[in-house]
Each structure stands twice: as structure tokens, then as C-alpha cells.
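User: quick one, sequence for these C-alpha cells?
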């Protein structure tokens, strides 16, 4: 098998990046964590992740080799969640009623390394170069600024992945996710006629949902700017699209959770679509949000605080 040191020098477009890649010793990245046991998809409809296409075969492109050269730290298991009291409230038994307070129950991934089937992320060379550039900026002590660093909404995927609680409210016409961090609000419109036109781009994108049985299918597009899908900067171009399949799972064990399968469509940065799965535990005690002040964390110019971030070069 070809080794990384044999392979990278042949990447003529990335020759200058190769040495930098091997200089990284710890980026804080984490390998993708699966959902609950049996939730990797590809099973029969009605099972966790059921009805999804079978896992793709392994693909090893030059771009993937470049990204894999960035070492990853294996994340821990699920975040321990406070057990529900015997008489604690549970979500509605209606599978189409998602209302209530939820929280990501998996370890935060600094960088998405694999899809939900364990396959490497299918980067184009341009996508690999963007990710390496972002990781190296942090390694060199000059991290690039991004939406969250400017107290702007970071997009639905990163916003959900953060280990902070969120609440869901809904009506017949819309479903809204309200997050503790960044004061984020992600609105899913169930009536496309009420959706803003594509010209009115938003940081969280324009999201239109529909019910497929008891699964909410949401298409998010028309982003105001390119997004980071995680902390390290796995990229999504402004013209990319996210398709999210959201369903509530209740096995009668007082451990209900939301399962969200996100498929990324972005030919600028990826050779083909790829999917990841996340789960979110029912956490009614988090419905009362703590105070969140973004400016105090990223550097308030009125308080002479500098976060030390620099603008990212344009592609």
C-alpha cells in the first residue's frame, strides 16, 4: 500500500502544503461518532437510519490522502446525560410533534473525518486545500475569522452540533429551532409559498421542510456566505445544500432522542454527496437557557479585547 510520504509529493497542486500537513501534531479533530447502537443507516424503513442507501465502497483520492495526513484525536463516547426522573416530563407521543428542549449527546467533533458509514469524506482538491489552510492557520497561531467569531449565525449544522441546548417550537406552517449559543434561530417553513425568495439569502440559509411519513425532510440552501461545518473548518460553499432528515425516536425506555441525518451536496468541495448522523437527547431541564454573551467570548472592541483572528484569504 502506498504510504502518505510516498503519496503526498505527487500532489503537484498541493506541494507547498505537504510539509505543513506533516507539521501538524494535534489539531483537536475527532473521528465521527455514530448514533445509538444500530443507527448507522441502511436498515429497513422504520429502523434507526432505515431506508437510507447502503454504505458506499472505500474511495482514496489525492484530496482524501491530503486531509487524512492531518492527524485526528479519537473522540470519547457519548456525553453523559442527566437521567430523567421517574416522574419527569416526556415529549409528545405524536411523532410529528418535535417540541421541547434537546441537546447534542455526542462528543463535539472538531473535524468531521468520516461519513456515517465510516467512509472518508470525498473532498475535491479545492475542498482539501481549504480545510488544510484553515487547520494550519490555527496551528500557526493565526486562526481565521469566521461567522461565529463575528457573532453571526454559523449555519444549521455547526449550530446543532455544539453541545448547547436548543428548543423546538412548531405550528402547522413552520418549525423553529431556538439555540442557547449565538442566539441562533433556525426556521423551517412547511409552506414553501411563505419562504423568502432565493435572492434574500440568510446566514442559516432558506430551509423548506416536508413530512415523509414521520420523518421531517428539510432542504437548506441560499446561504448568505460559505459555511464551516465544524470547528476546524470542513467547508460548505455558499451555493452548497444541506438535506436533513429529522425524526423522533422513542423506544419506551424514557430515553427519547432526535436523530438527524444530514446529507451534504456541494460539487465545489466534494466529489459526491455524503451523509453524517447526529443524535440529540430529550433534556427538559435545559429549557431555561443560561445567559449567553457572544461579544465577551470572541472579543468586544468596546472593551479592548482582541480575539487574535485574521481574515481568511479569498479562493
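Assistant:
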Amino acid at each position: 500500500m502506498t504510504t502518505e510520504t510516498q503519496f503526498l509529493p505527487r500532489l503537484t497542486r498541493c506541494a507547498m502544503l505537504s510539509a505543513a500537513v506533516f507539521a501538524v501534531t494535534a489539531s483537536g479533530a475527532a473521528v465521527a461518532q455514530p448514533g445509538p447502537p444500530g443507527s448507522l443507516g441502511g436498515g429497513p424503513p422504520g429502523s434507526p437510519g432505515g431506508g437510507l442507501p447502503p454504505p458506499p465502497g472505500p474511495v482514496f483520492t489525492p484530496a482524501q490522502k491530503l486531509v487524512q495526513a492531518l492527524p485526528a484525536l479519537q473522540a470519547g463516547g457519548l456525553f453523559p446525560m442527566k437521567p430523567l426522573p421517574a416522574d419527569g416530563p416526556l415529549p409528545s407521543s405524536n411523532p410529528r410533534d418535535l417540541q421541547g428542549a434537546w441537546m447534542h449527546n455526542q462528543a463535539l467533533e472538531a473535524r468531521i473525518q468520516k461519513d456515517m458509514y465510516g467512509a472518508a469524506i470525498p473532498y475535491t482538491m479545492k475542498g482539501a486545500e481549504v480545510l488544510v489552510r484553515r487547520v494550519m492557520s490555527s496551528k500557526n497561531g493565526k486562526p481565521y475569522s469566521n461567522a461565529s467569531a463575528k457573532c453571526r449565525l454559523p449555519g444549521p449544522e455547526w449550530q446543532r452540533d455544539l453541545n448547547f441546548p436548543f428548543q423546538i417550537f412548531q405550528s402547522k406552517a413552520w418549525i423553529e429551532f431556538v439555540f442557547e449559543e449565538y442566539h441562533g434561530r433556525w426556521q423551517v417553513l412547511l409552506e414553501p409559498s411563505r419562504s423568502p425568495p432565493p435572492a434574500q439569502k440568510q446566514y442559516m440559509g432558506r430551509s423548506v421542510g416536508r413530512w415523509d411519513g414521520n420523518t421531517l425532510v428539510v432542504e437548506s440552501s441560499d446561504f448568505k456566505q460559505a459555511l464551516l461545518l465544524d470547528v476546524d473548518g470542513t467547508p460548505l460553499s455558499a451555493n452548497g445544500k444541506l438535506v436533513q432528515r429529522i425524526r423522533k425516536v422513542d423506544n419506551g425506555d424514557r430515553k427519547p432522542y432526535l436523530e438527524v441525518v444530514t446529507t451534504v451536496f456541494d460539487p465545489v468541495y466534494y466529489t459526491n454527496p455524503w451523509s453524517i448522523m447526529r443524535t440529540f437527547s430529550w433534556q427538559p431541564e435545559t429549557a431555561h437557557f443560561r445567559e449567553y454573551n457572544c461579544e465577551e467570548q470572541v472579543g468586544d472592541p468596546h472593551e479592548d479585547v482582541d480575539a487574535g483572528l485574521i481574515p481568511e484569504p479569498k479562493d
